[in-house]
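User: Fold both of these, please.

Assistant: Here is the first one.
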Amino acid sequence: MDGELFNELESLLSKKSVNKSYVPVEKLNRLTKGNHQGAVAQISPIEFHDMEALITEVIESGKTPLFLLLDQISDVRNFGAIIRTAECTGVNGIIIQKKGGAPVNGDTIKTSAGAVFKIPICKVDHIKDAVFYMQASDIKVIAATEKTNDTIYDVSFVEPCAIIMGSEGRGINPSTLKVVDSKAKLPLLGEIESLNVSVACGAFLYEAVRQRMVK
C-alpha cells in the first residue's frame, strides 16, 4: 500500500472512530494467507443498536429499564462473561464506548455462550454521553466503585436504572464518576481488596434482580 493510500485509510478510520492497531506483516500473512495489501479489516459479527432508539423502545414497552454501561472493559473474556450475566439477569441493553474497550470477536462470543446475539449492544463516543442521556430519560445512573461508603445493599435498584462498571485497571473515568446519581460498592470481608470485574458485575446485577423480585 503506497503512502498516499495509507494516509487516506488512516484518515477514514479516524473519522469513523474505527479501532486500529499496527502489527508485523507476518501476522497479516497468517490472517490472510498472504493475500493483502498491507491492511486487514475485521468485521464485527453482530449489528450494534442505536442507544437512543433502544431506550425509547424499552420505556414504551412498559418495562422497568435496567441498562449496563461498560467503561472500557479491555479483556475480551471479562467482556463475554459480563454479556452472559447481563442476558441472564434481564438487562435491556449494554452500552460500550467506540474506542478503548474489548472487541466483539470469537473469544467474546465463546465466553458469552452466545448471549452476545441475544442482548442489544450499543456504541457511543463517550460513556459520559450515555450517562447524560440516561439521566435525561429519568433513568438513575449507579456507579460500581470503591470510592463510596454505600454498599449495594444501601442503594435502590428498583426504579429505572443503569449500572456502570469500570475498566479492570483504572475503574470508572473520574469525570464520569462525578456526574452519576449514586455510587455503590461490594462489601469485601477478606484480605483481597478487589474482585474480578465480571464477578463484581454479576453481584450488582443479581442484587438488582433480588430487589425487583421482592419489591
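And the second sequence with its predicted structure:
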Amino acid sequence: MSHPLGSTAVALALGISGAGSASAQSADILGAISAGRVVAISDGDFVAGTYGSSILAPKEAGYRDMLTVLSIADGRVSKSTLPISNSVTAAPEVLALAPDGHTAFVTERLGEGPEGGTTVRDLPPGNRLFAVDLSDFADLRLVDTIEIGTHPEALAVSPDGQYIAVVSNTAEASLLQIVEFTGGRFGKISRTDLAGLGITGSAEAPRGGVTATNVHWHPSGRFLAVNINTQDRVAFFEFSDGESGPALQPWGNVVDVGRDPFVGRFTPDGRHYLTSNWGRDFSATTLDGRIPTTPSTMSVIRFADPDAGEARHEHLMAVETGNSAEGMAVSPDGRFVATINMRATAFPPGSPRHQREATVSLLTFDAQTGRLEKAGDHPFEGVLPEGGTFDLTGDHLLATVFEGHPGAGPDAGAGLEIFRVLKGEAPSLERIGRVALPHGVHHVVLSR
C-alpha cells in the first residue's frame, strides 16, 4: 500500500464567467442534471485504431490516463483532474464511488506504457487498485494503492462502503477478491479462485476458458453476482464476514444467459439481475471477425428470494438492444435501462463496416413482472462509447465517448453525451449536448 500522494489537480472554473463560450456551454448542458459531482476515467494509451493495429497513441498527442471530476453547484461547473493508471481494455466497471461520493476507486487491467513503448505488447499487466480522495475538489489526492491479481476486469463497492469486490483473470485463475476499506485506507484482501467455488472450464485456454468480466453487489450487501462472459453464464455468491474474515460460497444455480454477458446490474430492489450480452466471437482472430454484425441482447434473471430455503434463480427473458452494446445503466427507480452501443464506430473510415454514429438503446422495465421492453434507439456521433449512468433522479442519461472521428470539433469529440429522459407514454431520449473531456473517456459515475 502506498502513502498519501498529493495530486497535480487543477481546479478550473467552467461557469459562465470562466473560459468562454465552450465553458458556458458545458454549464448549460450539465446544469440541469441531478448530481453534485460527475467523475469520469480516460485511457491515454489507446486510440480507437489500437484495437485493429495494436499501435498505441503517439506520445506527441500528449494523452494521459486521467481521472476527471466535474463539480456542479449554483449554475457553475468546475473541473479537476488527476493522472491515474487505467485501461479501456476492461469492462467500463473499473471506476466506482464510495456511497458518500467522497472516494473514487479505480483499477487498471493494463498498466501505463513505458518510455518508448509503441505497441499493446509494451503495456505491462495491471495489478493495482487505487483510492482517490475527492473531498477537497481543488486537491484530488491518491490516498492508497493495493496490489491485486493481474488483469483486473471490474470492481464494485459494497452498499456500506466497507468492501471493494474485484474480479481478475490471471494466467492461472479467475479471482474474486474482497478488499477491506476503512478510515480511508485499504485493509486486508481475500482472494478466492472461482474454480474453488465451482466455476470451472475444460477449454484449451487459460483458466480452462473461464473469464470473469463483471462483479456487482446485491443491494442488501449479502450477495455478489459475477459474469462469466466466455461461458455465457452468471454465478451468484453469498458473502459473509466473520472473525476469520470475508467468506464466499455459491448461492443458488448458475444461470445461462445470452452470448458474451460482458456487464450486469442488479435492479435497485434486488429482485432481478440484468446482463448486457455483447455477442462477440471469441474464436475469431481479427477485429472484423470478433465484432458481431447482429444486435446485442439483454437478459433478465429473477433473483431467488433471499429468505427461501432453496435458492433458485430463473432466466425470464431476453430482448435485443443495439449492435455492440458494452456498457449499461439502470435508473435509480428501476423503471428504465440503457445500453451504450458502439456499433461499428471502431472500424476505420476505409472499412466497409465503418459507421460514424453509435446509439443508446432505452428500455423500460417492470419490476413486478420482470418484463423488459425496448423503447427505441437514439443515435449520436462518436467513436467507442462505452460507459454510462443515469443521474440521481433518472431524468438524464450520461454516456461516454472515447474519441471523435477525424476532424471532429469539441461538440463531437471525446466527452460525455447528455440526454434528457422523456418519461411519457412512449419513453424516449432527447439529446442535450456533449461536454468535452480528455481523450479516451470510457466510464462515468456520479454522486450528490
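The chain has three helices and 31 strands.
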